[in-house]
Amino acid sequence: MKRVSKVVAYIVRDGRLVVFAHGDDETLALAGIQVPAGTVRPGELPEDAVLREAYEETELPGLRLVRYLGVGEYDARPSADAVHVRHFYELAVDADEVPERWTTYETGDGSHDPIRFDLYWMPLEQAHVLVGGQGSHLGRLFD
Prior knowledge:
By secondary structure, the protein is mainly beta. It has a single domain (about 1-140), classed as Nucleoside Triphosphate Pyrophosphohydrolase (Alpha-Beta Complex), CATH 3.90.79.
């Protein structure tokens, strides 16, 4: 089975976490509540990938790496014949003002239609609802 290097961003501010859902596509909406995450590009360091992915999906200014939280594996079957090797990071936002709710569109490499992200801040205490094992390292935010 293929192993794919991934990153997961916990963007934290005032006891809340940036999360999103895909509101305009029925299939993507089924994915549920997520945090910014994505694939590490060839030759890219995970710490660079997490900042890139977090910005591409949130468009938040002033994103800063706080710390590495660890690694975990996620069996992506049946949607993909792969094991995702996920690197989890805590990020902060160094901006005076951030929106409570906002929408962004990720265009990627242009090979697909833009993907809509409906983003908002969720209290950390409620973040156990994250899909697909994305919440597996939330407890480390309290270490």
